Amino acid sequence: MTPFVVMVPRMGPPFDRHPTTPAQIRGAAASLSRSEGDLDGVMNALEGPAQAAADAVDGQLDGQITVPIATPQSQALDSKVGARLCRGSVKAFADCVELFNAGVDDINERWEHARANDFFVADDVDDHDGAVEDARSEEAAALRREYRRLEEQLDNDAAGLAGILRMPTLSAIGSLERFQNAVDIRTTNMGKPEYVALGDSYSAGTGAGDYKPHSGDTNPYRSANAYPELLADRLGLNLDHRAVNGATTDGIQDQLTTLGPDTEYVTITAGGNNVGFGEAVTDSVTGDGTAAIENSRDQIENELPEDLDALYSEIRERAPNATVVVGTYPQLVDGRPGGQVSVDEEKAMNEAADDLADVIQEQADEHGFDVADVRDRFDGHEADAYSHYYYDRGTQLHDRDQPWINEIDVRWRNLFNDERFVESYHPNADGHEGYADEFEKHMD
Predict the structure, then answer these.
(1) How confident is the prediction for the chain on average, in pLDDT?
(2) Which helix (H) or strand (E) holds 19?
(3) Which of these, 353, 304, 308, lies nearest to 330 by C-alpha position?
(4) Does the CA dihedral 144-146-148-154 come out positive or negative?
(5) Catalytic residue among 18, 241, 426, 432
(6) 12 part of a folded domain
């Protein structure tokens, strides 16, 4: 049987679904005889729709998914076990194609949603048409990257099945079952509510350890212990964790490309990097941070509301149906003697944290977002939770006094972005459990 090959056109959005449908591929598998010796039918099924599906991705897999009939390997497949292996491979590949098509459908829906909203360009923007065209190009480029990732995944799926079919039959059956289980997990995750986690280091999980591998020149310090990961596990959500260490509200705008009408939940922490709060903390530990704290408070009052308004507006426009929950930042220190920072600076830092929470609450209210205010939950778990014990020997330590925030001396910072410095004054794994508890109240 000559394979039916259809090439996917390399064109812009709306993006193309796979030309060979999962139903056709499964139909080929269902039509196979279960009798021994009917290997030709199995091979033809693979050479037909499954091969066409593989070829249609990028034309590079020709001949990989099939097993030549006239080889010793094919003789080993000439049995009930062999027919079961090939039928299972056809079904597994059909499931992979179905995942590909579902991903393409999501991309197309987001494209149409963006187009209907003028690619999220405000009407009052100068040179509106030019801005729309630029935004259109950016949106298309972002969605093409996702489309290529889907193609690459399907390529890998086809190559993986090809490798399984070259194995000794009994070993191949076990490998095929593991492959199908992995595909089933991907299918289950795709069926879960869509949850996009945006934000800065507090959402990425910087300070919580167990960081995920990353590529490129950036280090997101994205942790498997971060509150978005915990929420996804607790609530059975399909998580797209996009938060990155150091992101400002402008940087978070770059994280919004996967938001769409099907997004059901969005969580975010944003604003701390806009107002230089990290620098204020560093100055307080290394010297006198009074001026830096006052500068942060001035930016919180005069600049941050507009920055958050622009970000929150964009989130709502891109994800009109989502429940959006905005997190505040905890007070980092307890305001008592004995820590690395003077009492006056600690009080000023806490007042600034309250100012920041107030602005976040006001802007969230204006956009109809929920707020997960973590300040009370972190009370007694500040970075210097132990300091007053050593200052006042009569104080008894209790479980509530365990620090949830890393207090690592920022004076040890260096030019190489040392992990201990980056984690300073960020929640640890226990802190992210506390964050998850607070966010979960708004996502049940």
Answers:
(1) 81
(2) none
(3) 353
(4) negative
(5) 426
(6) no
177 and 255 fall within a common domain: no
Residues 350 and 213 in one domain: yes
The tally of domains found in the chain comes to 2
Distance CA 403, CA 9 (A): 56
Instruction: Please write the tens of the pLDDT for every residue from 50-85.
Output: 656 655 554 444 455 554 444 444 544 556 677 777
Sequence-distant (6+) residues with CB within 8 A of 121 are 128, 131, 132, 135
Q: Annotated catalytic residue: which of 201, 203, 296, 387?
A: 201
In tens, the pLDDT along 413-426 reads 554 456 667 788 89
> Cβ neighbours of residue 273 under 8 Å, at least 6 residues apart?
200, 246, 247, 248, 251
The token pair at 42 is: 């199995």
CA nearest neighbour of 78 among 36, 115, 46: 36
| pLDDT digit string, tens, across residues 130-147 | 999 999 999 999 999 999
Structure tokens at 173: 């059956």
Handedness of CA 7, 10, 16, 18 (dihedral sign): positive
Residue ranges with strand state E in 339-437: 370-372
Residues 94 and 146 in one domain: yes
Asked whether residue 17 is assigned to any structural domain, the reply reads no
Could you list the residue range(s) of the whole structural domain that residue 80 is in?
Answer: 22-190
- Note whether 149 and 179 are same-domain residues: yes
pTM: 0.83
Q: d(Cα 293, Cα 285) in Å, to the nearest integer?
A: 12
Annotated active-site residue 201? The verdict is yes
- Span 208-233, mean pLDDT? 86
11: in domain = no
SS3 content of the chain, % helix, strand, coil (to 5): 55, 5, 35
Kindly tell me the burial class for residue 341, based on how many C-beta atoms sit within 10 Å of its own C-beta (0-12, 13-18, 19 or more).
Answer: buried
For the cut 60, the answer to whether the pLDDT of residue 176 exceeds it is yes
- Max CA-CA distance within the chain? 87
Phi, psi of 242 (to 5 degrees): -115, -5
Active site residue 426: yes
- Structural contact between residues 333 and 278, judged by C-beta atoms closer than 8 angstroms: no
